[in-house]
Amino acid sequence: MRWSDFLQTWDGHETENRFSRVIIIGLLVICVITSLAAWRTERSIILVPPSLTQEVEVTRSQASSEFKESWGLFLAELLGNTTPANADFLKTAVEPLLAPDIYRSVLDAMSDQIKAIKMDRVAISFTPRHVDYEAETNKVFVSGELKSQGPSSKPDVKLRTYEFIIAIKNYRPRLEYIDVYPDSPRTLARLQDTQGQPHEAKP
């Protein structure tokens, strides 16, 4: 019997229906899998910040090193250029970026510094010289010269390093760690050299 004649019979119709059901179920499974894959795939956003000449990539929980370096430089310049007139604004600008673990301690420290700056009428300016990102610790180091001067005193210039850990939460930067010290960047390589431990040079 030819296939076209078989399809005209009752058994032929039943076979065709069963075959169609299998095809439909297979297509539904493929659609569900495709939808789940598309839903779980993290969307990447490509940005070109004003302070950079190249693109940086940001996902929901990750970002390229250039993005973190850019934010580290922004925060260092923000915190390092303080006068009695803008001191309160700096606290307001930094507050939304702080992670819950350091929120209270950072704001308390900033409040104490703001009181001292206003009382002594000191102006502080920071000139960054180097920005480095350390992938092993996820730290951004911004080092440069910090100049402070009171109303009747000579400028005092010192080495200053700002050390940050910047995480990404829902495409937004979040400051999870901050340290400021009058020293060169305390990278892993430098700390190991200081302690006399061998370390592998990066290629």
Can you describe this structure?
Keywords: Membrane, Transmembrane, Transmembrane helix. The chain has helices at residues 3-7, 10-40, 65-80, 87-94, 100-120, 188-194; strands spanning 45-47, 56-58, 123-134, 139-149, 156-169, 172-181. It has 6 helices and 6 strands. Strands 3-4-5-6 form a 4-stranded antiparallel sheet, covered by helices on one side. Strands 1-2 form a two-stranded antiparallel ribbon. The chain is 43% helix and 26% strand. Strand 3 and strand 4 form a beta hairpin. It has 203 residues and is of the alpha+beta class.
Present the secondary structure layout.
Elements (H helix, E strand, L loop, with lengths): L2 H5 L2 H31 L4 E3 L8 E3 L6 H16 L6 H8 L5 H21 L2 E12 L4 E11 L6 E14 L2 E10 L6 H7 L9
Antiparallel strand pairs: 1-2, 3-4, 4-5, 5-6
